[in-house]
Amino acid sequence: MPIQSLLLDAAEDHFAKRGVLETRLADIREEVGVSVGGVYHHFPGKKELYAQVWLRAIGDYHDMFLAVLAECPGAREGVEGVVTSHLEWVSHNRDRATILASPRPPGIDERAAEGNAVFFRTVMSWWRTHEHYGAVRCLDFDVLNALWLGPAQEYSRHWLAGSTTTDPTSVAPELSRAAWNSLRTQE
After folding, report:
1. Helix, strand, or coil here: 136?
2. For the whole model, what pTM was predicted?
3. What does 50-78 look like in DSSP terms, one character per residue?
4. Considering only CA atoms, which of 97, 81, 62 is closest in space to residue 179?
5. Under 8 Å between Cβ of 101 and 156
6. pLDDT of 103-139, one tens digit each?
């Protein structure tokens, strides 16, 4: 495995478990077994290393989300599938989920703007198609996101913090059904 990937993996583990402020580059370097110069050859400092870990985590999450929408032609299947997959992703990617639930790296919004624009455009295109056919409600993105993923994200934050111990996948049926009921067109 390339040194850069090993550094990212080790950094992800340390940042998730100890936080950015408590993580020392020396600990990451020692875990991977590279020299100080080996770290700085790939990353100019801890700030950039954290930014790269965060960008990798959000990219992985976006890939999962868009794959679910691509596989789910129906509105209900997509809404429920995204909630279920979100909770599965959090459960199986605890370190990455912890990184995304932590404060964003400074200046990351500009660096992530292009990927985020593609992601949000794709999600909203999928949504508007189902809205056009009357399957789901007409909602602005902020409200849509809160209703669709808000409860799952809140549950995930509690689980990641250790204040609830039931694995997120166990609550997926209930939360995905609740999301669908709040987003579907009421008859």
Report:
1. strand
2. 0.94
3. HHHHHHHHHHHHHHHHHHHHHH--SHHHH
4. 81
5. yes
6. 999 888 898 999 999 999 999 999 999 999 999 999 9
